[in-house]
Each structure stands twice: as structure tokens, then as C-alpha cells.
Amino acid sequence: MRKIESERIPIYIWAEEVDEETLRQTKNIANLPIAYHHVALMPDAHVGFGMPIGGVLATEDAIIPNAVGVDIGCGMHAVRTNLKDLPRHTLETIASKIRSRIPLGFEHHKHPRSWEGFREAPDLPIVKQELESARHQLGTLGGGNHFIELQKDHTGHLWIMVHSGSRHFGLKIAEEYHRKAKNYCSEHKLSLPDPNLAYLPVDSKLGREYIEGMNYALRFARENRRQIMEDILTIIEETVGPFEAAERIDIHHNYAAPEKHYGKEVIVHRKGATAAHKAIRGIIPGSQGSPSYIVEGKDNPLSFKSCSHGAGRRLGRNEARKKLDLQEEVRRLESLGVIHAVRKPKDLDEASGAYKDIHQVMDAQKDLVDVVLELHPLAVVKG
């Protein structure tokens, strides 16, 4: 970890290398008048909108929609089963059924899904506007870096891992309140290093509305992952017969929450970062072909008790398609025996080569988390 002290508040960096644009964005958030104590940059950090992904920011009495991100509540859900050593043809069958039955990419369910939380939706215009569509989005994976992965631990036990968030529903809430935050800052003549860092006072009507909408999107995101996982477990039971789901872990890595740090109640924004509270289990996924990790936090105050949310991008999407070789990526995955999701040039933006080395990322945050389990990929499904 290294420290930069040239800005309004210090910046602590766990990343081995930080590109110029990511560093510029980090300095921008460090110079916000509402920023508290210091900024933490996780080892998987890369460029985002306004605030870098992999950034952790504490603020005083204010909340920044773009410091949560557009995929509110994006996160991980992992389940350990008592199944062991499934043959490749069985894994291929399970992956095929997942692709055919769980909507991927922009696909939604044809029929609305049920969830008791729909009866508890906040009375916000944007939520009401999107609620009917959200009923069809629940239990869908999405595209981009969202994935479903079948994995094994050192004992050979099968794990299932889901990476998804609040889908288009959360995006619309994020966009609506970022727009309102920009208007608020403009009307009050608040100077910002970047308009994408527009904020709202937490005790204002708009601030309270955003927090209510964000928290509801967090609930939706968690339920989305849960329903996807239940569908996967049903598929596996249909394929191999009855089994037990022995352990479950679910975490967010795009959210803001009130927490106490350095003796003060603040709003901690984790954008592409995971809480790493002492002895609490978390998930740090790799990329196709690389391990994922079950971890326990170490309560490090310098990271605001946070850690990375994954390997982190090494190449932008367009850059990955230009620089990576499709055949080479496919050969590498197949040499590992992974049933992968790299088939076409457009898939290169999510190939392993587009991401940082997960082993280096984990090595850089030994003071943030302890590794409990290393999980190795068996089959990958992507949107």
C-alpha cells in the first residue's frame, strides 16, 4: 500500500499500478469538500464514471449517486453444495440448461416474477414508473461482466457463484438521482471537479429519496441473485438428483451505507469494493479461467474496512477486442478444462486477458482479508 498526500485529503492505494485517468478520478474525489479523512483505492481499481471502480469514499452528510454506481447493489451470491467430482458431460448439461432457462443479456422473463418486496416499494415516481418492468427483470443475469460460474474447492465440492445486480431497475434509479444531484449542485452553485460527482445532502428531501430508492434497489439486487440461484439449484437437482446446499454467502459491492470511522458517523461509498469487516465472509471473484476466493475481512481502518470486488479490468472493452487474440484466449481456457464463454470476437471484452492477474490482486490486499477458500472454475455462463 502506498500513500499520496498531495491532495485535500490523503489517498491510500493498494493497486500495484494505476493508470493516469483512474488516478485523476481518485484525486477528484479526494478534493471534494464533503470527502472525509482519506480515500482508499483497492487493488482492482480502474476507470469509472466520476469515481473509479474499486474506490472507497467516506462523506460527511452527503451522498453521491455516481459513487454508488449505475448498477446499484451489484454483487455476488455463492453456494457450496455437497456434490463432488461431477463429470464434464454433466457440467455441460447444467450449463446448457442454465443458458436456456435463465434470461441473459438484455433478456427478461416473459411472465412477471413474484416477490413480497414488490408490496413494499417506496412511493417514488421513478420506482413506480419502473416497477412493472422490474417484475420481469427479477431473476435475470444481465450482460457485461455478470456471470454464473460452477466451481470446485480443494476438496472437489461443487460451488455455484452468481454475479449480478439490480438490472435496468437500479440503473433508472441511479440515472434519475444523478440528474437531480447535478441540478442541485448547479442551483446551489457548488463547485465540483467533475459533474459526475454531483451529490445530495443526506438530510434533504432529494437525499432521503435517493437513499430510500438505493436501499430498495439493494433489496431487489439481493433477491435477483437469490432467485437466479434457486433456478440454478433446481436445474442441478433435475440433472443429478437431490443434494444439499451447505453454505450461502451474499454480498453487495456497489452501495453506500452509514458507518462509524475514526470516531465519526459518515456515509461510506463502495463502488466496485466489498466490505471486509472482521471475521465476516466475503467473495472476490476472478475472471474466466482464474480462481475466485472466499475471504474473511480484517477490519483494516485504512481501507474503511473494505477490499477489492474482483480482479479488475486491465483493458477497456474496446481495447480488449483490439488487443486480445480470440484463438489464444480460447486455447488457454480449454487447456484449463474450463467450459467457457469466449466464442466470438465480442466475447473478448470479458476474457481473462482483459483482467488483472487475480493472484497479484489478492497478494496486494493481504492486510485487508484472509483467504478462506480458493475456488477453481469448471463452467462459465455469461450474458
Low-confidence stretches: none
Rounded to the nearest angstrom, the distance between the terminal CA atoms is 35 Å
Q: For the record, what is the CATH homologous superfamily label of the largest domain?
A: tRNA-splicing ligase RtcB
Shape: globular
Rg is 20 Å
The CATH architecture assignment of the largest domain turns out to be Alpha-Beta Complex
CATH topology of the largest domain: tRNA-splicing ligase RtcB
Strand order of the largest sheet: 10-6-8-7-17-15-14
Instruction: Describe the sheet with the most strands.
Output: 7 strands, antiparallel
Number of strands: 17
List SSEs in N-to-C order.
EEHEEEHEHHEEHEHEEEEEEEHHHE
Overall tally of domains: 2
Strand content: 25-35%
Class inferred from helices and paired strands: alpha+beta
Which class of the largest domain in CATH terms? Answer: Alpha Beta
**Helix content range:** 25-40%
How many separate helices? 9
